[in-house]
Every structure is written in C-alpha cells, then in structure tokens.
Design brief:
Layout lengths: L2 H20 L1 H6 L5 H4 L11 H9 L2 H14 L4 H16 L4 H17 L8 H18 L19 H13 L3 H14 L4 H9 L5 H17 L4 H21 L7 H11 L14 H13 L2 H13 L4 H17 L13 H18 L2 H16 L23 H13 L3 H13 L5 H13 L6 H14 L5 H15 L15 H8 L4
Helix pairs in contact: 4-6, 5-8, 5-25, 6-7, 6-8, 6-12, 7-8, 7-12, 7-23, 8-25, 9-10, 9-11, 10-13, 11-13, 12-13, 12-18, 14-16, 15-16, 15-17, 16-19, 17-18, 17-19, 17-24, 18-19, 18-23, 20-21, 20-24, 21-24, 22-23, 22-24, 23-24
Amino acid sequence: MSGSSRRHFLQNVGSGMLIAGLGSQLAIDLGVASEANLMLPTTNDYGRLSPWVGLMQELDPDKLQVKIVGELSKGNVTLPDLVAAAALANAETFGGQDYVGYHAEMALLPALQMSEELPKQQKPLPVLKVIYRNTSRIQQFGPNKKTLKPIEGLARETVSVDRFGPELRKLVRQADMDKAEQLFATVQKNDPSLAFDTLLYTIADEVDVHRFVLAYRGMGLIDVAGQEHAHTLLRQCVRHCVDFEQKRKSKGRQASPIRGHIPKLLDEYKLVGKPLGDREPDDEWLLAFSNSIFNATKFDASRAVAEAMAEGVSTKSICQAISLACNQLTLRQSGNPLRTHGASAGVHSSDAANAWRHMAAQGNDLNQKVGLLVSAWHTGRYDQWSTDPYPLEKHFEKIKTDKAHELIGVCEESIRGNDQGTASAAIRRYLELGFETEPVFELMRKYAISEDGRLHSEKFFRTVREEFKFARPAFRWRQLVALARVTASAYGYDVKDNHGYRAPGYEDACNLLKVKA
C-alpha cells in the first residue's frame, strides 16, 4: 500500500474508534463523521466520476480512446480520475466474477503507477492500454449489465473484526452471496476502518492468486477513487470469493486443506497472541530459508514459516525469503513450449507473495500471521523446477560486450526475438558490472506497455519494481533477471498465444498521442 493509502487507512481507524466511543449520531453532530461515511448509497451514484463511468461502460473502446486523448489534451480530466472511473465501471459490471474483467481491474493501478514514471507525452499510454482492455471486455460482457446492485435495509450496530471476520468467512463457505454481501455492507456502513481486516479472513480461506491480488489492488484503488467508493471496490472481492466457492461446489472439488492446516499451525506454534519478532538473520540464512521454501511442499512451506515466526524472525525477513522462492519459479522454469509470461508459476506466485506482503503489513496481528502462512503455502503449491536457474552458461555466448548501452541493446534485441536466455544473460552481466538499474526498468516498462502479456504484464512489472526495492542488495539482481526473461517470453504474443500482435489499442493510442509505437 502506498504511504498515502496507509495514512488514509490509519485516519479511518482513528475516526472509527472515536465514532464507536461517541455514538454515530453524536459523532455526526460534532463533525467527526458524516452521514455519508456511515450509510451506503441506495443507488450506484459515483458523483463527479459518474459521466466517465458511463462512458467506460457504453462507448466503443476505439471511440473512447479518442475521447480520452482529446479531454486529456484540454485538461478536462486526469489520469487518476480515468483510472478511478474505469475501476468503478469494472466493479459494477463484473462484480469480481469475470476472468478478463478482474484481470483488467488488477492492472489499472499498476498502469497508473507506470504512467508516473514516463515522460509527459507518453504518460497516458499504459492507462489507455488497460482502459481499452477494460472497455472491450465490458462491451463483450454487456454494456448495460450491472452485476453490483444497491444494498438497502442495513442496521446500525456495533461491529468487530473478531465477530464479523469469521461470520463473513462462514457465509462465503456456504456460497451465500446475498447474506455475505449484506454482512460486509453492514461492516462498511458502521465502521469502514474494519472492512479490510474483516475481508482478510475470507481472502485467506482459499489458495487463489486472483483473490489475493484483487483485494490488494482494490485497497490501493481506494486511494485513487476516494474513500466514498471503498465499498464498491472491496465488495467485488467478497463476490469473487463467493463465486469461487459456488464454482468449486458445482464441480465437486474439495475445499483447500489450508482451512484445517492453518489453524493447526497457529495452535501448534502458539502464534495467536504471540508478539511478532524482529530478528533479522543474515543473508546466508535468508538464502537457505528461501531455498527450503522453494523445495518444500505447500504443507512444509507453511510449517517452515510458522516455525520462523515462533523463533522471532521478522516478518520482513520472512517475506523476503518467500519472494526469493517465488523468483526461483521464474528463473528455473523449463518445458516446451517455454512460456514464462502470463499465468505462469513464477508470475502468479510472485504476484501473490507481493500482495500478501502488503496486506499482512496493514492487517491486525492475526491476519498478519495467517497472511504469511498462506503466502508460503501458495508458493509451495507449485511443482519445483529441477533445472538450473536462468541464465545458463550457454546463454552468455552471445554476450560480447561490457558496455552498458550495448548490453541494453543486446537485451532488447533478444526480447524481440523471444530469446529468454540471452535477454536474461545480458541483464545479469549488466548488473554484475554495477551499472544503473533504471535503464533496465525503462526497457522492461516499454514492453510491459506495448505487449499483451496474457493480461499479466502490468501487475508483474509492478511486482518486480516493488520486490526489487524490498529485497536485500545481495539478491536484487534476481528480480530484474526474471523480469527480462518474462518480457522476452511475452513479446509479440496475444492473449490466445498467437504471435505477431501488440496489445489491443496500443498502436492507435501511440498515433493519437503522436509518440513512437
């Protein structure tokens, strides 16, 4: 979560406690809270964003792109407002229940963050790309279809995470959409500061990267759209989880054993109520621990993390180790066809670990511990690749230079040739020589914007950006080498794995902005 989001969250916690102490009506009278903060709208009214929400749902994506560029040039709209409107249009239309739809939702905030790193003329590009995908899917789904319906008849009552978190989880397990929505709305109405912690009980109840990232990015989008839209952005996560449960039951699949395993670990290692540790082991320990997680089963990976927490290892070190283990899934991937982008083990596990690292940091004590256990479990659920990590020795054969700009050039040529090995080797050599990392990020961002990436390029770029900064210096290079490999894998492929395509709408957006495609 951004610093600004964190401040909003803590402010809401403080106001929620004060409201609980004063009583809601007195708090309103004193100006501590507004009626709007305590009541949910009976209609889906998005205020000043409503016109753009409507355009996102109703206008052809090509016409919408022209409209957006025109209004941006006049200064009539901002990129954050466009992202906020797209997120609300998406949430209202899909309610977290459409695969392409929620992938577009999860890409919006990373696209906006990418835009902030670009020169002025190029800033709209990543946002336009994801909005094009978002609106195209809404058109396919049905522009007049509204999955989210207004919620009415909510009572004022005292809420607590200890009560409402397990109750929401129970209703989701029962696949009761209406009651789950009603209960979550009750929390949002009475004390918005408790909504996310309440939601985390359900987010941690199944091993599904999409529910993790949708919740994490949904919480981040609140900082863009505004607190008044928090319920719209978070209730789609509730619906996503209920939809998952409904489909699981209809297909006769068993619930994840995590539901029984995590409580046992909490009990066995006496983690409930135990203060979180602050011990920061050395790099040697961190590398060994990350390798043990990578090589472990999902049961053993979560157990290893429980043991580390019991021994007082800091959550920061545990998260760094999990992130490194996920990185190994990308660097070591083998097979034919060799596609490391999209819904691959490395990309999915890295995105999941990144999401849980941020969510656990802002959750209550129990949610922090459960979040780390779930994150480790998710990493351990994938089959381990027995091959050596990229780049292999043979991949360095095409590297004939030690000059920074030439190594970047070799990497770019390799990306365009889908040569994952040479792209990885060029960046590994570049980093070994101690050159600045920003030119590498600039190159990777360029192709994260221009390529489809099987719906995952924006998320994964942002994940690597964040994990690179979070990692210890000795291990940071691994994140960028993995990004180079994934970028080379994605170049030229559309979402159906056909080759020779850029991201839909990208080239037209470049023409409208008068920038080179």
